[in-house]
Recover the amino acids of this structure.
């Protein structure tokens, strides 16, 4: 990734691919196909592409606040509870659009904090469609040999290569847990206990859930209120609904957006 500036003075990001890697070139073609079909305020905008015998590159909308992953683990600044709710609502709206905004649903296949980028107003944009799948008309799932990131992929995706909109819902639920607890799904603490992130969260929910959420959710001077606790519990419950073992038992992204809007509005009520 590089930062560049157009002749108009607009800052852009340059994503240059490694031509020596055949799989990377295939991902370029996939991403081009997906991005030709989508336009949404919560997706990273592709300004143009470059393709020749010597280069494959995307010129992308520049995101000055970096990735959600950096804000969770690397930056000195911290996200409070309301910021995390707003970011995860932005992500849910983007995925709802991919799943339900077209005749042919698009499955992202690699939802994780590093693929969520934040603009100057801290609005979240989902990016990186290199392994996405455009489902054929009348098909609700497809098989793939390309796996997403360990810890985020749904059980049926990891074991059988089955991708569907439900597999994105699962990844979203894992990411929602991670954003609240500041724990990667491959965290060593859980690995030593032979637990996945869902099992680790379930063990604490609902009685001791406040003991395992990220302490940085609340600035030192801010008091934890009952509204905050209800908001967190509601989001964890939503994440659990997203990560049911069986795909048919998971809720849809339409329902996720509805529930998160209710959670956010209840939290903001005075």
């Amino acid at each position: 990734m590089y930062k560049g500036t157009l002749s108009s003075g607009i800052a852009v990001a340059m994503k240059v691919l490694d031509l020596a890697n055949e799989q990377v070139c295939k991902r370029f073609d996939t991403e081009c196909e997906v991005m030709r079909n989508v336009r949404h305020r919560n997706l990273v905008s592709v300004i143009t592409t470059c393709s020749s015998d010597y280069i494959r590159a995307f010129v992308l909308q520049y995101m000055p606040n970096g990735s959600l992953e950096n804000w969770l683990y690397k930056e000195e600044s911290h996200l409070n509870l309301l910021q995390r709710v707003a970011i995860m609502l932005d992500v849910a709206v983007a995925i709802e659009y991919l799943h339900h905004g077209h005749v042919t649903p698009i499955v992202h296949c690699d939802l994780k904090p590093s693929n969520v980028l934040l603009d100057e107003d801290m609005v979240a944009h989902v990016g990186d469609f290199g392994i996405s799948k455009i489902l054929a008309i009348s098909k609700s799932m497809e098989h793939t040999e390309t796996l997403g990131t360990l810890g985020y992929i749904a059980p049926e995706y990891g074991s059988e290569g089955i991708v569907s909109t439900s597999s994105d819902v699962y990844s979203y639920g894992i990411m929602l847990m991670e954003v609240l607890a500041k724990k990667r799904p491959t965290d060593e603490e859980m690995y030593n206990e032979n637990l996945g992130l869902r099992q680790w969260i379930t063990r604490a929910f609902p009685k001791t859930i406040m003991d395992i959420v990220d302490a940085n959710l609340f600035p030192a001077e801010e008091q934890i209120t009952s509204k905050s606790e209800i908001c967190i519990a509601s989001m964890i419950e939503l994440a659990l609904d997203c990560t049911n073992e069986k795909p048919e038992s998971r809720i849809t992204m339409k329902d996720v957006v509805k529930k998160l809007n209710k959670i956010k509005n209840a939290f903001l009520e005075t």
Summary: Strands lie at 2-5, 11-16, 46-51, 56-61, 106-107, 116-118, 124-126, 133-134, 141-143, 162-164.
